[in-house]
Amino acid sequence: MAKTDTNVRSLENALRILDCFTREKPNLSLVEIADRVDLYPSTASRLISTMEAMGYMKRNADSLQYSLGYKLATLGAVCLSTEDIRSISHPFLVSLRNRYNESVGVYVLNKTQRICIDCVPSTQPLHRVIEVGTQMSMTRGASSKVLLAYLPEKESAAILADDPFITTEQLEEVRQKGYAISFNEREQSLCSIAAPIFDSHQKIKAALFISGPVFRIPEEKGKEIALRLIDTAKEISIELGYS
After folding, report:
1. What is the pLDDT of residues 147-178, one digit of tens each?
2. Which string of b and e fits 53-82 if b means at least 16 CB within 10 Å?
3. Residue 162: its pLDDT value, please?
4. Which residues of 146-172 are buried (b: 16+ CB within 10 A; e: fewer)?
């Protein structure tokens, strides 16, 4: 069997092991797991050891039974939170795209990266293409400035330690204006404007952005778009429980 086929089979078996756990049976022994997925105990043990080391499973030292690990709870929380914001924000993205016909989307923080969870592209022949799932560093661009500006100072400083392109003065300006704008920071001839979305705990949740070529977003239009983004981001925040 080819190595790729073996890797795929191992992944399938690992996912099948995770599927063994239910609300009714949250704890299982190695023998029970191996029996449920029809694997030799030795094979199941190797897969479980890897998932245990990565936080996807854990073992009770007394009973020697396994259960799902903290990593899955973390991923589940991320999934639920981003799904909430996607479903709430999407109609607003469509409305902004229809108004300005530039690409509009939402970035959320993912450790030291930002990840696009939704984007409605411009219908114009020349437009910014940002696919859902795209990850970018947090040290360039309007969305990065917005996310960093509202993080605790220690967190933003740690992210910027390796690339202090964005300054604390710029972050303070973002907080004062309520939005960020960038020109040519990530791509030449590209303008991006972003505003913060907050959650029910008054914490930064995401960055609402609009992006397009510089020649279509001159300074005055950029200011108009920024004010509209601020208002729209506030509306989304309110629907997320922000007050």
Report:
1. 999 999 999 999 999 888 899 999 999 999 99
2. eeebbebeeeeeebebbeeeeeeeeeeebb
3. 83
4. bbbbbbeeeebeebbeeeeebeeeebe
Name the residue type at position 111: K
Q: Which two tokens stand for residue 112?
A: 């030291």
- Which of 187, 195, 188, 75 lies closest to 136, judged by CA? 187
**Three-state secondary structure call for residue 193:** strand
Short-list 171, 159, 111, CA closest to 135: 111
Query: Has residue 11 got a pLDDT over 60?
Result: yes
Token output for 197: 């979305």
135 residue type, one letter: Q
Q: In what order do the strands lie in the sheet with 113-120?
A: 135-137, 113-120, 103-110, 204-213, 190-198, 180-183
| Residue 54 CB contacts under 8 Å (≥ 6 apart), including other chains | 71
The backbone torsions φ and ψ at residue 53, rounded to the nearest 5 degrees and listed phi first, read -65, -30
pLDDT at residue number 2: 56
What pLDDT shows up at residue 164? 85
Distance CA(102)–CA(176), nearest Å, equals 25
> Cα dihedral angle (149, 154, 155, 158), rounded to 10 degrees?
110
CA–CA dist 182, 117 (Å, integer):
20
Q: What is the pLDDT of residues 45-104, one digit of tens each?
A: 999 999 999 999 999 999 999 999 888 877 766 665 666 889 999 999 999 999 999 999
